Amino acid sequence: MTKVRCAWPKDDPTYLAYHDEEWGVPVYDDLELFEKLILDGSQAGLSWITILKRQSNYKKAYDQFDPLKMANWTEQKIETLLNDPSIIRNRLKILAAQINARAYLDLVENEGNFSDYIWSFVNHEPITNSWKSWAGTPATTKESERMSKELKERGFQFVGPTICYAFMQAVGMVNDHITSCFRHNEIKEMTA
Q1: Cβ partners under 8 Å of residue 115, min gap 6
Q2: What is the CATH number of domain 27-190?
Q3: Which residues of the chain have pLDDT under 50?
Q4: Domain spans of the chain?
Q5: Three-class SS state of 74
Q6: N or C: which end of the chain has fewer CB within 10 A?
Q7: Which pLDDT value is given to residue 192?
Q8: CA dihedral 179, 184, 185, 189 (to 10 degrees)
Q9: C-alpha distances in angstroms, 39 versus 42, 44, 115, 118?
Q10: What is the rounded distance in angstroms from the CA atom of residue 5 to the CA atom of residue 27?
């Protein structure tokens, strides 16, 4: 029997694996959350599949998403990234990744850890929505708007409310699998 899924992964094997195994699963590890925030920022103006298919390239190019290394990128490193065809070569996004690494380090120094801070936007509890179709899913919420505002105040870039909501969906802060999707209940039970 064919599993019922959300419509957005279509039949792309990379997208299907991401949908079935990662999307909506709660993430609490600081560095994993940082990586996903950087990748969501890299997506701005593009489809997620464009970034997803380059995820391992980003990991290599961005020093395994080590915020300390990223915060200290030299001009030479940035030029290397701008000439790397395996990632999206957008100067603003690359510079934002470095700025975000610095903002992340400041946040961790002041707050203790990134996970508690990020999860505070949903009171440390995943939100389970009950959308019947993908068309009903919002692009932003009051939580993503607040997250965006606060991250920007802390110096983060490429963290608009839509990017923040996509990030929240990706890291399981919200369960936006449609109710008929087999993952909706699996993730709901995982977070109960």
Answers
A1: 28, 29, 30, 33
A2: 1.10.340.30
A3: none
A4: 27-190
A5: coil
A6: N
A7: 72
A8: -140
A9: 5, 9, 17, 16
A10: 21
